[in-house]
């Protein structure tokens, strides 16, 4: 591997670590000074779902049938049983079986 490419990779990974850690620390520092009223609490509670949807949606749109089957099955289990662990397990199992049998 070319030496400048290695250093560029190390620099890129280091910057991502600093940005990720910095955003968490700054988030904690900022939120420690914000009073948690009902509107702020609803906003914070909705953020995790929004981020999850933003990460998963492109995978579902551009993915294969296994991804779509896993998303539908995991969503149905999440709604039916309200268990994140069961939802993740069913989604992973569906994607794995799709790829085992159809890929």
UniProtKB/TrEMBL annotation:
Keywords: Membrane, Transmembrane, Transmembrane helix
InterPro entries per the UniProt record, alphabetical: Brnchd-chn_aa_trnsp_AzlD (IPR008407)
Transmembrane helix found in the keyword field: yes
TM regions (residue ranges): 6-31, 43-61, 81-102
Pfam families: AzlD (PF05437)
Transmembrane helix among keywords: yes
Descriptive protein name: Branched-chain amino acid transporter
Taxon lineage: Bacteria, Pseudomonadati, Pseudomonadota, Gammaproteobacteria, Oceanospirillales
């Amino acid at each position: 591997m070319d030496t400048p490419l290695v250093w560029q990779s190390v620099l890129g990974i280091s910057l991502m670590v600093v940005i990720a850690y910095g955003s968490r620390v700054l988030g904690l520092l900022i939120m420690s000074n914000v009073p948690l009223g009902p509107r702020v609490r609803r906003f914070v509670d909705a953020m995790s779902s929004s981020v999850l949807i933003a990460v998963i949606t492109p995978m579902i749109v551009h993915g294969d049938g296994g991804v779509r089957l896993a998303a539908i099955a995991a969503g149905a289990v999440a709604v039916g049983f309200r268990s994140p662990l069961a939802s993740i397990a069913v989604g992973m199992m569906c994607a794995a079986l799709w790829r085992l049998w159809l890929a």
